[in-house]
Amino acid sequence: MRGFCVIISLFLSIAFSQVDTLPLFVPQKPEKPIKFCKAQKEWISVVEKFEDWQEVRGMSNLVVKMPYATFDNFTGHNLYCDIQRAFLHKDAMEKLRWAAALLKKREAGYKFILFDAARSNHAQEVLRSAVRGTPWQHFVSSPSKGSIHAYGMAVDIGLLDEKGTLVDMGLPYDSFAFYAGKSGEKQALEQGLLTATQIKNRELLRSVMAQSGWISLSSEWWHFNAAPGDTIRTKYVQPLPISQ
Ligand SMILES: [Zn+2]
């Protein structure tokens, strides 16, 4: 009987550890951080000419500041070669403009901070490699499945307050914690991991985005799709097969 109990409690502790207390992902910094300049420049030269895509600019309350264009992201690599240029499909761009206009009405003085928009498959592969084979790999789509970012139809976005300070969402961009998105918020509030204000801040972002036609991802407060994933995968194309 005792053995049975040990097995049961072992099972429960594993089940619980996977649901509730999956330790926070601590990325292994690479020994040799790489700056992916050739791949990123090639990709930009293609998407610049892709007629349905546009560069994200011209919105006075939106700042492009992409951690993947620096070494300061969970991979430890500089995926975008210091190039802070973001691109989107024109359908997504239109919705982003709506969102920017709506934010101006809702919270004058606030700005969007764009962490990422369209993403090449080479970058997706670097992101996936950093988590492949770990319990956190489900957080990052594999390039073969195709991230919605690859279609130029997703954004990773946050808010800056009137002082230019990041609005507190309780967890930073790209956190792998269970309460990084809406699905874990109730539990995190009960456990004191998130405050009501942090959840309210997330709700402001979600509400402005939802009213502009964006669909939020339940596991990440910062990620929004410009249409349902299935629609995007069937009706939109990725601009290129990556040559490298
Ligand atoms: Zn995303």
List the helices and strands and how they pair.
Layout: H1 2-19, H2 37-47, E1 53-55, E2 62-64, E3 87-89, H3 90-106, E4 111-116, H4 121-131, E5 154-160, H5 185-190, H6 196-211, E6 215-217, E7 220-225, H7 229-235
Parallel strand pairs: 2-4
Antiparallel strand pairs: 1-3, 4-5, 5-7, 6-7
The structure holds zinc ion.
Zinc ion is lined by residues 149, 154, 156, 223.
Q: Any overview of this molecule?
A:
It is a single chain. The protein is an alpha+beta fold. The protein has a single domain, classed as Muramoyl-pentapeptide Carboxypeptidase, domain 2 (2-Layer Sandwich). The chain contains seven helices and seven strands. It has helices spanning 2-19, 37-47, 90-106, 121-131, 185-190, 196-211, 229-235, and strands spanning 53-55, 62-64, 87-89, 111-116, 154-160, 215-217, 220-225. The strands form two sheets. Strands 2-4-5-7-6 form a five-stranded mixed beta sheet, with helices on one face. Strand 6 and strand 7 form a beta hairpin. It starts with a helix and ends in a 9-residue tail after the last helix. Residues 1-19 have low confidence and may be disordered. Bound molecules: zinc ion (ZN). Residues 149, 154, 156, 223 line the site of zinc ion (ZN).
